[in-house]
Predict the 3D structure of the following.
Amino acid sequence: MIGPSPIERIEARILDIPTIRPHKLSFGAISRQSPVIVQLWLRNGATGFGEAATIGGPSWNEESPESIWHAIQTYLAPALVDQDGAAFGAVLARMDVACKGNAFAKSAVEMALIDAVSRSLNLPAYQLLGGKRHQSLPLVWTLASGDVAQDLEEAQLRLQQKRHRIFKMKIGARTPQQDVAVVSEIARGLAGKATLTVDVNQAWDGHTARRYLPQLIDAGVTLIEQPVAKWNVEALKTLSAELGSRASIMADETVCTPQDAMLLARGQASHVFSLKVAKHGGLLRTRQVAGIAEAADIGWYGGTMLETSIGSAASAHVFATLNHQHHGCELFGPQLLVDDLVTARMPIVDFELQLPDGPGFGVEVDQTQLDRFDRARTGLHTTHIDLGHQATA
Ligand code: MUC
Ligand code: MG
């Protein structure tokens, strides 16, 4: 066993990986993902990988693959060379001094560091994050083809394959009336076989949400994610109080920092937090947000930004350390992509994602796949999103 040692080098690259079908959200449709993959070397020879993925460039939040890459290469990596690799807290503090915000960029670097240090110690990363409390988690699949028949077909197949029995529908691109009709049709098709949740991705105002969410609940929806704009904590509070006996309100875009979590907890403005390593700024800060949730009797959900198996495995490691008040996880990113960056994906058994127990995040990166999807080879310059009907006038 080699002990942790100073950080020697950090490198980031942008990859472009097509999705198996267009993935439609309230703000646009993507047909490829552009994860930023970070590799970090310790002076003891150990190396680790991290990842930050966004959805549609800077359209899910402020950061884009290009800004993440730039923050890492220009500011974060130079600030960390020769720093003690095992001093995670000090590394985070130094990144905060070098760079305000940029949570996704910091999370990718911290991920690579924790992978490298865990591998130095020949331990799975969850051992450094508090120890494992789950060996597997129920795995959600998101229905977002934009076509009802295709969504139903996808859901039926995934049920048969025993991969997923919780389905999340992306709504908010159509009118609310159309969304209610589509969700109701899917709910009828899956009645008694699966659980249905929705993610509005901030598309509705408070009034629309108060009017249409009860109809979605009548149709069978049990968990409602980010129905209103990220700043609209007052509406989240009202919806949580009014709908709480019939369904759960989940914050996603609203809950990024531990301070956001405190605000929501104080205001009793959501029943569940969608935890995402990238938006919280890393694995350790994900645990901080989860700690606030636990103290406030708020449940958690293992969120995704549609990462490859690198970021998904890292997320699985931190989610595995959390308490039992959970609503499963949606680490299905690898399945949405045409191919992956690791030699073997995390298995899915009986509708549950299995935690890999090997050293680091328990997945082995395939260097040829990194080279194959590298932006230097794909020749792309930006991260694409089809804004479709979105108003520009
Ligand atoms: C989000 O807002 O939750 C997660 C799954 C998916 O389809 O999109 C993401 C982002
Ligand atoms: Mg969401």
In short: Residues 55, 142, 144, 170, 199, 201, 252, 303-304, 306, 330 surround MUC (ligand 1) (CB under 6 Å). The mean pLDDT is 96. The chain is about 40% helix and 20% strand. The domain at 127-361 is CATH 3.20.20.120 (TIM Barrel).
